[in-house]
């Protein structure tokens, strides 16, 4: 752990104002509040209004993280998202411009719900290589724009939101310094989580895409099994590399996929309920945004405090997964 480390210096989160409850969804889908709660743990979620894009969410979260850090200067912007404003160009440069950050380096990271962990790796690399002293990492998804509104299996789960952190160069011994990052992928199982149409493979095939292929799809049972296995394994590795025992963990912040997955992973890691951070009941699955949004909310309401040893883990399409650790610093969520 020599050289420059990436240290959390600010954090912010944002969800759009439009609230959708389970009862709202039951008015147009063959479902009910009880059915949704029992299978996902979700009661309500926030969704974008017509005309609102991922960049709009990202800018709001970015502003809050910069304010939290008390310093609006950064050398790079990394945006983790599955729902860019358009296929080309990347969305990060537009976000940087709208934030008034000048002509800084800016690029997107695509790792679906693992995007924040992969974004942490990218931002840490920029800092470790002396390319940047300060990096704004934003994870934002307008996931409801790619979910079939008539698909009960996905429409009740996914929601929209953004979370952001400012990372600065510092020492590995500081509070807020990221611990070792564990990342992995398995492209042989990419079909478990996908949007089949819209890319070069479908477009080069010639015939127009089936309308249903333009929406997100997920094979739930297989995804559940791999999510539990991969997040458990990655979490165990990250704790070991940091020199922590699992019972050293004060707060466990996992990607808010669904309540059943969260419970299964926590049980395997023997993390008691009072140490688990969760907001899935109130905001649903917000894709790449879920972990930083959760951290921002927990820091704001007091569930996450300076000195807490925190374990982060995520799983998403690719398949992709990751985990890392940090001791929470004295930062205030905005």
From TrEMBL:
ACP-binding as annotated region, ranges: 256-260
A single BP term in Gene Ontology: secondary metabolite biosynthetic process
Pathway: Lipid metabolism; fatty acid biosynthesis
Single GO term (MF): beta-ketoacyl-acyl-carrier-protein synthase III activity
Alphabetic keyword roster: Acyltransferase, Cytoplasm, Fatty acid biosynthesis, Fatty acid metabolism, Lipid biosynthesis, Lipid metabolism, Multifunctional enzyme, Transferase
Subcellular location: Cytoplasm
Domain Beta-ketoacyl-[acyl-carrier-protein] synthase III C-terminal: from-to ranges: 242-328
Reaction catalysed by this enzyme: malonyl-[ACP] + acetyl-CoA + H(+) = 3-oxobutanoyl-[ACP] + CO2 + CoA
Record carries keyword tRNA-binding: no
Domain comment in the entry: The last Arg residue of the ACP-binding site is essential for the weak association between ACP/AcpP and FabH.
Known role: Catalyzes the condensation reaction of fatty acid synthesis by the addition to an acyl acceptor of two carbons from malonyl-ACP. Catalyzes the first condensation reaction which initiates fatty acid synthesis and may therefore play a role in governing the total rate of fatty acid production. Possesses both acetoacetyl-ACP synthase and acetyl transacylase activities. Its substrate specificity determines the biosynthesis of branched-chain and/or straight-chain of fatty acids.
Listed name of the protein: Beta-ketoacyl-[acyl-carrier-protein] synthase III
Organism listed in the record: Streptomyces lacrimifluminis
Gene that encodes it: fabH3
């Amino acid at each position: 752990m020599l050289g420059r480390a990436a240290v959390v210096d600010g954090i912010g989160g944002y969800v759009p104002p439009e609230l959708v409850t389970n009862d709202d969804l039951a008015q147009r889908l063959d479902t009910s509040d009880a059915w949704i709660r029992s299978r996902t743990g979700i009661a309500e979620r926030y969704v974008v209004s017509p005309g609102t894009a991922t960049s709009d969410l990202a800018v709001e979260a970015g502003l809050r993280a910069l304010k939290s850090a008390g310093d609006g200067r950064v050398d790079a912007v990394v945006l983790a998202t599955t729902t860019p404003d358009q296929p080309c160009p990347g969305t990060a440069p537009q976000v940087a411009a709208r934030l008034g950050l000048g002509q800084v380096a800016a690029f997107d990271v695509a790792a679906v719900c693992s995007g924040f962990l992969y974004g942490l790796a990218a931002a840490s690399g920029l800092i470790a290589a002396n390319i940047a002293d300060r990096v704004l990492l934003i994870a934002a998804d307008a996931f409801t724009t790619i979910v079939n509104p008539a698909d009960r299996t996905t429409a009740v789960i996914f929601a929209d939101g953004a979370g952001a952190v400012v990372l600065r160069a510092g020492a590995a011994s500081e509070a807020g310094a990221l611990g070792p990052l564990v990342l992995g992928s398995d492209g042989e199982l990419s079909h478990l989580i996908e949007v089949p149409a819209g890319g070069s493979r479908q477009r080069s095939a010639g015939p127009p895409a089936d309308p249903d292929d333009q929406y997100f799809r997920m094979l739930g049972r297989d995804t559940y099994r791999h999510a539990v296995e991969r997040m458990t394994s990655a979490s165990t590795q990250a704790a070991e590399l940091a020199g922590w025992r699992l019972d050293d963990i004060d707060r466990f912040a996992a990607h808010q996929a669904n309540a059943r997955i969260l419970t299964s992973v926590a049980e395997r890691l023997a993390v008691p309920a009072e140490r688990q951070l969760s907001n899935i009941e109130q905001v649903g699955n917000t894709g790449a945004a879920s972990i930083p949004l959760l951290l921002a909310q927990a820091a704001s309401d007091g569930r996450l405090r300076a000195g807490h040893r925190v374990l982060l883990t995520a799983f998403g399409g690719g398949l992709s997964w990751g985990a890392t650790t940090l001791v929470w610093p004295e930062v205030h969520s905005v």
